[in-house]
Amino acid sequence: MRVAVAGCCHGELDKIYETLALAERRGPGPIDLLLCCGDFQAVRNEADLRCMAVPPKYRHMQTFYRYYSGEKKAPVLTVFIGGNHEASNHLQELPYGGWVAPNIYYLGLAGVVKYRGIRIGGISGIFKSHDYRKGHFEYPPYNPATIRSIYHVRNIEVYKLKQLKQPMDIFLSHDWPRSIYHYGNKKQLLKTKSFFRQEVENNTLGSPAASELLEYLKPSYWFSAHLHVKFAAFMQHQVKDTGQTAKATKFLALDKCLPHRDFLQVIEIEHDPSAPDYLEYDIEWLTILKATNDLINVTGRLWNMPENNGLHTRWDYSATEESMNEVLEKLNHDLRVPCNFSMTAACYDPSKPQTQIPLVHRINPQTTEFCAQLGITDINVRLQKAKEEHHLCGEYEEQDDVESNGSGEDPSEYNTDTSALSSINPDEIMLDEEEEDEDSIISAHSDMNTPSVEPSSGQASDFSASFSDVRILPGSMIVSSDDTLGSLDDREEKPCEAVELGGGTDLTQVPVKRLSDEHEPEQRKKIKRRNQAIYTAVDDD
To answer: What pTM did the predictor assign?
Structure first.
């Protein structure tokens, strides 16, 4: 099965599908599945734009609304997770996943599905320590604090994923698992992104929660985005019990969707030829969702997951054969994901712009149907009931105080003091609040025991080369030989073949060099970058 993986989409669906069509013309066959690793930006209208955590002048409609309205249809089944630049009000309607447009499926806050026998899991958002132990308390209209916290990963999602026992084929996250850079060509990574050096040396780059999941799930493939650079790694997992088979994970992070950038990769993955060619629910995941339904928290209070410490009557929510059979009976043994997309908000009309569309906390009929069938609670229904009873009023005021003061909470289970870190990623959209450190790829120092021993060069070199061999894409995106571990720092880039995307843009035109903000004098002339209107990192004062 040919699977395409995209990095940060930033709403550029037309360009991504055009590039897929080009890959199909050059490749051995059609693309069967597209996986997108966040910053998808499923923006339906002007109200959705106001729910994106980017400065107002960088909010642009892009092309998703054409697929939402039915004007266009995705040419290939597309599965995606959320990142940190999303139409959060839209994705919040689908906490357990669902269709955002025909043939485009969102995995939810966390989720697992199957396609042609391939098991695909994912977790949306990025890690932020001070929100990690809170419930899902945010709802539109968001305030300056909740428009950011809405996309922060929560411990409940990680806890649910850690109840899984069956093997995972593919896993998606937006930010990288912490320490993964020790298992690839770290030298080339730091040559490309020199401003990562301090975090890499301190082992603070990436998400400790994702690292925990990587160590637990041990998927065959793990795909990420967020840092706007292509990076491959090969992680050999340690065998803890004798008799266990050693597992390894092939990791790949991709860039954002721009010319001359490695934003797309096509790989061949073995699948079950007898498996159905439609999207299916994963029975183990559904059983875990049902079992953990009572753990739903819609408050901003900090809380811990149940564990075997004498304080909880239950801490194991993994799926048994009996419980899975019960869920199968509920679903009449039909695991097919229903094609039940419906529009829940007005679609953008370029001829009739509407800048004053009110923000509404909606209940999506897909989620209602899913919850009724499985017998679980819709988080948004619980939120609305709490609003009606005025149970959250004080907590929202407290949340604002915490965000503004930067203190007032118990410490997270992860040590996340980043006061000594100051590097920034000039490719990232920056918000005007210094706490948004994960957007500038500053994560936190973790006390997790994640291995950070560098693998042998041959292992990672073979893996990186294997990715290069299977990708058949425009010449401007061909993998450089510098991506292998044996690359030389002084090696020059080779010229690429000229390729045009939809609009006829020549991708071999050499782009202006992007400069890091490191070590530059305070008084310097500002350079207007080519894509500044969408992706620059400077907000209005």
So the answer is: 0.78
Q: Which residues contact 394 (CB under 8 A, 6 or more apart)?
A: none
Question: Mean pLDDT, consecutive 10-residue segments, the chain of 541 residues?
Answer: 96 96 91 97 96 88 96 98 97 98 98 98 97 97 96 98 98 97 96 94 96 97 97 93 86 95 96 95 98 95 90 91 97 97 96 88 97 97 88 46 39 42 58 43 38 43 42 36 37 35 40 39 46 44 38
- State the SS3 of 60-76: CCCCHHHHHHCCCCCCC
CB 129 within 8 A of CB 117: no
By DSSP bridging, strand 170-173 and strand 279-281 are unpaired
Structural element, H or E, at residue 171? strand 170-173
d(CA 436, CA 423): 13
First to last CA, the chain: 49
Question: Contact 233/224 with Cβ under 8 angstroms?
Answer: no
Q: Which helix (H) or strand (E) holds 467?
A: helix 457-470
Q: Which long-range contacts (CB under 8 A, 24 or more apart) does 319-327 make?
A: 319/163, 319/165, 319/283, 319/284, 319/287, 319/288, 319/291, 323/287, 323/290, 323/291, 324/283, 324/284, 324/287, 326/287, 327/283, 327/286, 327/287, 327/290, 327/374
Contact 412, 133 (CB under 8 A): yes
